Fold each of these.
Amino acid sequence: MFNPSMVPTPDPNPLPAPFWVFKLLLVVTFALHILAMNFMLGGALLALLARWRQKGSQFGTRIFSDVAKKVPVMMAATISLGIAPLLFVQVLYGQFFYTSSILVAWPWFLVLVLVVCAYYGFYFVSYQGERRPKAVGRVMLFSTTLVLIIGFIYTNNLTLSQVPAHWAQKYFSSTSGWDLNLSEPTLVPRYLHFMTAAVAVGGLYLVLIAWTKWKQDREYARAIFQLGGKAFLYATMAQVVIGFWFLFSLPKTLRMVFMGTDPLATALLCFGLVAALTTIFMMSAALKKDNIRLAALGVTSITALIVFSMSVMRELLRMAYLKPYYNPQQFAVQTQWSPFLIFLGLFVAGGVFWFVMLKRYGLFSRTKPVQP
Amino acid sequence: MNYPVWDVAFGAGLLMALVAGLHVFISHFAVGGGLFLVLTERKARRNNDSQLLAWLKFHTRFFVLLTVVFGAVSGVGIWFTIGLISPTATSNLIHIYVWGWAIEWVFFFLEITAALLYLYGWDKLEPKVHEWFGWVYFITAFASMVVINGIITFMLTPGQWIATHQFWTGFFNPTYAPSLLFRFCISLALAGIYSLITASVQRDAALKARIVRWGALWTVPSLLLLPVFAWWYIRDIPPVLWASTRGAMPTGTHFALLACLLLGGTFLLALISLLRPTRLHLAFSLVLAVVAFGAMDSFEFVRESVRKPFIITNYLYANSLYFAAMPGDGGFTVDNLSSTGVLQTAKWVQNRNLTPANQVAAGREIFRVECESCHTTNSYRGVHQYIVKRQWDQDKLHAMLGVLFMMHNNVMPQFAGTDAELNALSAYLGSLQPMHPPPDLHPDGRAVFEQNCSMCHLARPDDHLFTDMPKDPQAAVAALASLPAMFPIMPDLKLSEDERRALVQWVNTQRPTQAAKGGN
């Protein structure tokens, strides 16, 4: 039998800001991280798809190389934006997160090795695309597979962090950290839920890329739009099924959180479902009518809202899982005002400055930057 | 013991050293190298040196591929790894410094963006705008160092934070300034050292020579300045901690020596590169980089060694026990464990109660929760090898475990647990390789010292063993019969009369003679 007292005690230091501040930061930065991850992974998967589906055709290879060139940058964004939620999850849920990480320590540690290999692979593709057209396909597949494995390890660790009742048996059968959370009933649907979302949002990424080329190179842009738009369409349709699978794989009490017990969670689920169906119709219409603005602006904004609401739902689900072991009131709060305000100031100023950098780089200007 | 302990057969500490060691060597390059990029670009443009500019573009790609990929991932890697190995320390550092980490994250995000735009901007941007990105990169990279340095130095010298628990008191702690200057110096030196790697593969000999000389301008003065900041740094480390590098603790002493030797080696090699700059070979530049890597990592080892037995000095022991009791400590203090017992307090053990049958199994669990943060049984800092080397049987193990905290300049925490738990731990350690040394009729005094005394005493005339032991051999042999009677915290080792006699004889040969003293 699991003894709840095995859940580690958080350290004695008070939270340096109110609980909700960290919660908000966690939800927002996680959504940003997951968007970047979706662009990276979805982009890589669709680049591969373009290459194989249209083998020999001019556009297939061109889409592959155009998208592949952007993947390393998205990888950098994924990692950089991933640091913040990794920090805030440790602030709020360290006692759960460290413990589950230790139970799956080796796979968790191997994430680092896999990330480095995948990352260098993506760079290889981005730099060697023209010189070694044959090798890059294989390297791209290799790196993308590694990213898929990394996602799977993440799902294992984070699902395990929510079920302390499974810890003792796992740890005492082996303390070497060679374990995963494969017996978890929500593991596969949850993982697929994330990966399918990556394909859908990756599709939108292609739509956005197509939009930037819409005026100059219509035919090519249309090919990207069709690929990205369809990927979004089919992935989102599949997501409706996978989403329900995920929902029904949850233990009943947790499922009911989204089906009546918790009004916010229920409302968010309904919103997610309606919004997803809306985007399916919108994208389908956009593709038929060749209306890229509808896809690039309409579908993208609704999807961004869905991603943020999913990030909130993920939090609500975690709280529901941890209810027997976790109480936000257990933390003392002693706000460290000056470093907190410095962070807030830098966070806002940094965000503005980030756009200034992109602007100076010429990312938003229609004319090409000056050639030296 | 609050958290489960990950059993890494070859040693969790080694894994940590691997990840952190690689990271620091690249992350410091990421700071100095940033300034190097932008100043080299300016120099090349002012001199209209298109060759140097072309090399710099190549060097930028090398720089970004190394720092943005490996540097960034290994930095996150340190977090992953300490979370697995020292979750309690990580949790504390996160809660104490979350705003520090968050501020650092903003700089890091800008730094990565600037690095990528600088790289991709080589063919796209006007020179001035391109240089601007170089400056943004360097300033944000340096700002990350400014922040992280506060947290790393806090771990070694938290200063008044222990009393106040104020963010800034711990952040701007006694070694903050010297450490920042010291590390910045290292990062400038590394900028020069790394530049030789890409310079060495240039075909144009004249260009190669220009880069080598320019690189040396970064490396040589920085390495000359380094000892000054090192002196300042050491001055602000409490002397009792620093003593670990002066013979009292083998690891600290060896790495301090190694750091000095390799630093000297780096300096010499950097000078040698100037002898024939046109013929600099890739192999030479890599050897130089490896030697510099050794020097830098030896320094990090020293820093970690002198901090022992703490992970946060005077606050948290390396094995995750708090130094002093405080509200919310979960009972994880030496005092509490000694009264309530480790098996009763630890969350992640199976043997809650000791029986004659479970001594070894329970001892194994005590070893896991109390010792494995630093030790393994058979590998890195393996206790098995210590036991065999010193021929400790179970009784001696028991006696020695009672005085852990006195060994090697107090680099280990006190054993925390009840007497019965101490017995169980000795039973487990004794079971690794049972020792039954036959009585030695002609023991060697030096060997007796090594096996029984060298953990706490140094073979130096000014050590207490040499100054306090009665000069008269008969009296000394008698006194050694009961160590606790001589000094209450000494372990009750029960040396045989032959051993005592041999020890006293050897000690007396090591003492300075009266004549020598008079000569001084």
Note: Confidence is low (pLDDT under 50) at residues 368-372 of chain A.
Amino acid sequence: MSAEAALDHGHAEGHDDHADGHDDHGHGDLVENNYMKVPNIKLAIWTFLGSECMFFGSLIATYFFYHEKSITGPLPQEIFSIEITSISTFILLMSSWTMAMAVDAIKQGKTGRTVNFLLATAVCGTVFVSFQVYEFWHFYHMGLALQTSLFGSTFYTMTGFHGAHVSVGVIWLLIMAIMVKKGYITGEKAYSIESGGLYWHFVDIVWIIIFTFVYLLEFAKPLSDAVK
Amino acid sequence: MRDERTPNARVTRSGMRGQIGDFLRRAAPALLPIGLLLLTACGGEHPRDTLNPAGDSAEVSAWFFWLYMILDTVIFAIVAMFFVAAIVKFRRKPGDDTLPPQSHGNMKLELMWTVIPTFIIIGLSIITVGGVFKLDGRPALEQRQVQVDVIGKQWWWEYDYTQHGFSTANEMHVEEGTAVSLQLASADVIHAFWVPRVSGKRDATPGRVYPLRFTPKLLNDIGEDPTKVKEFVGQCAELCGASHARMGIKLFVHPKTGPNSYDNWVTSMKKAAAEPTTDVQEKGKKLFGEKGCVACHNIKGHYDFRSPRSRTTGPDLTHVGSRSTIAANTLPTNVDNLAKWIKNPQAIKEAALMTNLGLNDEDSKAIAEYLMNLK
Amino acid sequence: MSAKLHTIEDIESPPPDMHFERGLKSGITDWLTTPDHKKIAVLYSLSGFIYLLVGGLEAILFRIQLAVPDNNFMGGDTFNGMVTMHATTMVFLAIMPMTAGLANMLIPLMIGARDVAFPRLNAWSYWTFLFGSLVLNFSFLHPGAGAPSAGWFGYAPLTGPEFAHAGVDYWWAGLALLSASSLAASINFIVTILNLRAPGMTLFRMPVMIWMLLVIQFLLALAFPPVTVGLILLGFDRMFGTLFYQVSMGGDPHLWQHLFWVFGHPEVYVLILPAMGVVSEILPVFARRPLFGQIAIIFSGIFIGFVGFGVWAHHMFTSGMGPVADAAFAATTAIIAIPTGVKIFNWLGTLWNSKLSFPTPMLFALSFIPMFTIGGLSGLMHASPPLDLQQHDSYFVVAHFHYVLVGGALQGLFAGFYYWFPKVTGKMLNDTLGKIHFWLFLIGFNVTFFPQHILGNNGMPRRIYTYPADAMWGFENMLGTAGALIMGSATLIFAYNMFVSFKKGEEAGNDPWDACTLEWLTTSPPHVANFEFTPIVLSERPVWDHKYTDGHEIVAPDKSESFHMPSYSWKPLIVSSCVLTIVLGLLLNTFIPGSYLWGLSVVGGVGTVLGVYAWVTEPV
């Protein structure tokens, strides 16, 4: 086949993927031949999330490694308040909806709407973190510190890092909101909001896992034989 | 666009001498290790030679070594043969600018050198798994056993013969042909118990107890005098701090019968400590109590230890005079070395946890004399 | 758009202001703010090489201590510090950055791209690595403590607050920074390789070097987090009194071991696969024929990377996991031998029916084969627990991993340096000095490490600062020290060669080796935008096929094609400094408790956020 055709159509001989010859020059984006048809930022976030799976996986595995091995200190069932944590969980889940709405808005080029939903998501995230702070303060006053027991060490570290990720996410949302407001991000660059959305949804999913396996599962058995 | 200068045109010498010289230069990467092996493998009996096994466990390990060694040598020989042959045979002749055949591969060869190694690996894995379970085997319950609780501490080994009710340190005594069952634990960091001629090593991990089992071979079977005690040496094999290198182990294998039998040793160990025979020893015994040695050390009949055992409890000294070395195989046991150790442990073993009591020469010597008598 | 077709001959030397060479001699501001992958590659490679010398010096020092029995050249804790730093330096500060240097230089050039996907993130990775390395080495200066002395693998509870001095704080903090640096770099390279290939370069037309580099980026992205978590848990134990590794409160030292080795094993494949990629690039060039079984070699690399995640507990055979776990990991470990063998046989196949020449890069690439084979075969022994129970934690293991990491990885990196030095600098390295380096190093290496197999068989454990005369280990240890000095001399000769050749070496030209892949298309040193025209790729050996196959054109569009190169920026250095400040705040607060120096971490955090904002809104 002729090389000229290769240039014109961006088609390469080969049995698998083909070159899409269209340029996607963004701000300093060196995307010239977007083989994966996935913008650079989005692909980067996916890879980062893969790494984060291993990170949270290790933290959660540590929690379960030491589950019910504490020598002293309050037990999970004694201090967890499923009612309060359910509320904060619900708020975080709602924030995933507002995030999805923000992405939808930017894809339609509606920057005002986008900013509003981004801010709404940030507010939900902040409320979630506030609930967590309250929860930590409450547990501390019931006698569970980082240094009290294995439960204390693993619980605070695992949920603390999750809360830190939510906080970083809130900052990310605010930065995105400012950038949309100031016109740095427009409809053509919807994928950068989408990438932030991927991170936000991931953080939400991690919380669902923690809420289910750390909080809810403690109450799946009667209190009597939970006190082992 | 080809570069005009052809750095590929390395001139290689023709003629016989040149060819041999070339061959040697090219083949050196393959020949060097073999030459060094021959050079360094010569020597007398090594005290920790894993390939001269004196225990059943070490014997299994040695068997596996030879199995893999033969296989590895064959594989390396094949690789080396083709490697050297290719380098010698396919050198580019000077001035030859033609290209060799531009083949990309050969499916048959690929399959062959994937499938054959797969079968070899499967075979090795089956044999290995067999070995794993064999080495984990428990001796039959009714069999006579030597049971020792081993506690690794920075930087010495405590041995509790709970069957018989006494403790000793660093030098373990066992019986030929009788199963030894060690329960390994640690009071501080991870250590590892290793006497190479007798068995592979296991970690002594704080918070866990893990068994190590082996049976020393009969003294006759390893070419030793069956009436004498045979000494094996080992040491800690897991980095455990500044004096990791000074955490030695001695293993004494006793005959089953006769004056040097294991049973005789047990009997002597069950006795209380020997009474002082001279004035100096008497003084040393008093100082032992006054100066605070009793805070960490047990001497049965003289200073029976009452405090709860802790991480820093020191070795049982009831029969310290009959141990061949002190400070975990750091110094031979004699009055001078004992005195030096008592006076300033940290000078002999870096960061040793034994308190420096600030004793003077005279007092150290007196206590040393007292201890030397505790046989 | 109809393009004017050009051939390679039409590519002329670019105008001076576009020439990379001025780049190598540019001022310090340029180096601090560069987004250019080629400059960042030089930074990584030079740093890595300097740390190679530092690690080598650490080795020579402790080898002096071990040369004779009962030596008192250095004490136990100092010795333990030397071996810990030697290993940590060689793995994290020498081999990995030199590999990052090759990756940075070669990935865009070999795939026909103009730079990496995220040039400023690339710079950030370098600065974070540099700061991490400095934190680690600052430990030497800590009063009353010194270098971390708990081993490069840092087993708890030896590294815990009860047993280890402040050296370990520098260790975990430095490694945390290094893991962040690696993560960012791995994301960058994955996106670059997947998205920025030149038109026509399908995945299977990519050079093997790029394939190996792609595989290790996935290993890095997925394997670092467990050890990052392990280090955080250790740091928390030391800083905040948590109980993760506190045995008295129920903590289990095996937690550390699992977290560390889940990282540690894929890490060794990170160290070796790029060197295997280098060998796969060099052998065909100096054999004047294609790599035999290229697809098999690629798939073997992918398989090794994948299965490498399933073998970690072969480092724990003596720890008491029980026979079932031992047997399972023994089986998975043995499997890796198969693709490794496939690679070795295919390299031999490349040498067969070829026309070989032997300049220095080829010598190193060739020597890789037998040396790595020896290391791989001793590794196969370790995979069998009955045998490993004797070999673990003995000098047999030291021999094994030095054969694969020095005889394998380091020789591969040396080969790569000799091979690509002309492309980077425009000058050839002196081949005579190169051959002296090669032979001296090979001899020294074997003199040191081969006898260590014997030492292992004779029961010498690792990490002991001294040994008695009656252990009968003196001769092999003396050889070990002698060989180390020889290796050191060889490496200094190499350093001298690089220095002297950079100044007045022979001019290289675009394609001094008559090679195959895209980087030889451009000038030496490369055009600042790598290629004056975007190449189009029609085979896996584009430059070779253009030279030797009739009618195989590498087309390029009209010279008037414009492209946008990334701009210089201070943000990566600033943000990296802020991240360093976060870590320093934590460290200082640990060393001086109650001092509120954690406030420094807060300042660093705020700085990071502001810096990132400035970064993402910066016009590029």
Note: Residues 1-32 of chain A have pLDDT under 50 and may be disordered.
Amino acid sequence: MNIVVCIKQVPETTEVSVDPETNALVREGVDSIVNPVDENAIEAALLLREAHGGKVTVVTMGPPQAEEALRHALAMGADEGILLSDPASRGSDTLATSYTLARMVRKLGEVDLILCGRQAIDGDTGQVGPGLAERLGAPQVTFAIELEVSDGKLRARRVLDDFFEVLEVSLPAVVTVVKQMNEPRRPSMRNLLKAKRAEITKWSLADLDADSTQTGFEGSPTQVIRVWPPAKRSGGRRLEGAPDEIAAEIAKVIRDVKLASG
Amino acid sequence: MTVRLITDNCTGCKLCLLACPYGAIDIVDGKAQFNDNCTQCGACASACKFDAIVLEVAYTPTIDVARYHGVWVVAEHLHGELRRGTYELLGEGRRLADKLDVELAAVLLGDEVAGLSEELVARGADRVYLAQDPALTHYRTGPYSDVLAGMVNRYKPEIVLVSATPQGRDLAPRVAARLSAGLTADCTGLDIDERERLLVQTRPAFGGNLMATIVCRHARPQMATVRPGVMKALEPDRSRSGEIVEVPVHLDERGVLAKIVEVVQQETDGQVNLQDAEIIVSGGRGLGKPDSFALIRELAEVLGGAVGASRAVVDAGWIPAYHQVGQTGRTVQPKLYIACGISGAVQHLAGMSSSDCIIAINKDPSAPIFNVATYGVVGDLFEILPALTKKLKAS
């Protein structure tokens, strides 16, 4: 199986700042990690490769340092890492990102399965997976918790509100996975060292033969006009005492709340 | 957006004909041909295996925004009933439509769902676009996105609102990519910039550490998914009247790439209806192990409340995901929220800090949950919860 995993390098959520000019997020000088649920997507790809053979290619777009995210994927066991880094792709919203990723997948030729994490912890949109599926004209399975491939078909269990749905789709397909799907493996020291020296394939938008009106700021219909931290709240009253006394006080609060709501 | 046939590549295989929801393709002399029913929805381009149908002009900044008019709400139903989030969207959509002085329409896709139209009108819609077909019985990405994209192309709404439910978050980005429309995820605030006639969308990002305001100036429609549990629904008004517009669709099951093999309702026990609950008792890492959720369940039962959970314990597999409260779970606004052993990561606070009254029990006095708590208890939940449950049982 030829599997492509799309990953994103994200900053640690608590350390974010905003460029006052462009309103884009400043990612330089901040600790970066692979978006956590993308590790589950990598793990899923590795498990499928172990069962069916084939190749796992991990792709990402971002600044040059996003290469580190790919090295982490290689250390986990991926076969190849490809970085799309191009100043002209800066400011891409989810539409431009899905366009660019689709160009990358197309360039890879015959691909059976494309895996993504359900959503990134920075943007929190979850829109790139379905957007990518649309661009590729492929069926999509979002929120997958189990995957099974046989006879050119994919059977996936999805977690929805309070039910599971088992969906069968033809391949190639795009799948977004949830955190509960598996436990991502920790790279061994040996693999980490190997990944450190591994060759990362680097592409620019020109390599993708991309339409420049569909990438970066120009290809992004949405525009962030303001970013701000949510208002801090200060805490209310502290209840103190022995457990029994506290329980009594809480019981009183509950009674009052119940009375007030009739 | 326009579909174009590359005649040389067309094999006359009829895949496009099967995929077209609007009966707009004929095969003439072994080649596909578009007829007047075509809405440019793009379903044929997705279905074609020979690159013979291309979707042209994706995103054009020069799109004539003035040709787009009206606010749409995509209705969502489950087991024959409209979902609460749809009522919230209609309430909010009504407010936005009134500000813009345009119509509010609901879009209803399904099979034998016409009976739900009245409720959509009572909840604020001026018009209901209704598309019915057996292939639309259960939500599936392909047919739903084909039909919705076609309707948007035909009627050109300026705003399309979709619930940020699993279904809405599967559908909206697919349709937005098809239409090259701007889409903003999981909005918690919407408004209209009356001078520019723009939808002003506010949403949390970075797990709730940042709020962002987003607009879409040059592309139409302006699409947004809206977080359930935030907007206010209107009381149903049975005296309202609205127009029902039947949109004819013809879907061929053979053209649908996805089959639903099975749907399994998870074992739920009445303690998971977070959205409707007046009281929620939530547990986090501080419980130490999965079994300790019994303490939470017991208290919730005595109070007639629902059981919530933090992301940490859901990710750890202690409790199913449908209990999760927070940025990646449910947003709740109960009368009373009791957080037990939850430190209060911003991601959790984003989903519960609008509760009327919050009681937090945590042994770490510096836990951020205390910043939003109406009543904070620094103490051992293993002592306090049993005592509290006992006291409540006794009274």
Note: Helices of chain A lie at 36-52, 67-76, 94-107, 128-136, 189-197, 243-260.
